Amino acid sequence: FYILACRIGPFIHGIKKKIQAIGGTLLVNPDGHEWLRAKWSTPVRRYWKISEGLMVKHADLLVCDSKNIEQYIQEDYKQLQPKTTYIAYG
């Protein structure tokens, strides 16, 4: 199962249990740094940062479309030992 972006983080644990129950694997594309964008209000940015962390925690594999995003995930979430791969656009 492939999930694009990290906006459903608070719900991912329950979803992952269902995916595992049928023998599936959870792949997540962490998208970008939405939580850093000033166009979003502070509560929205906080939600997206928390959501991102939960997605990183529960994903079986994080599929990054940017080397910089992959590096960020590996560094910022080092304690979770995230499994990542890089697949370029195009």
TrEMBL record:
Residue ranges constituting the DUF1972 domain according to the UniProt record: 1-90
Family matches, as Pfam families: DUF1972
Official protein name in the record: DUF1972 domain-containing protein
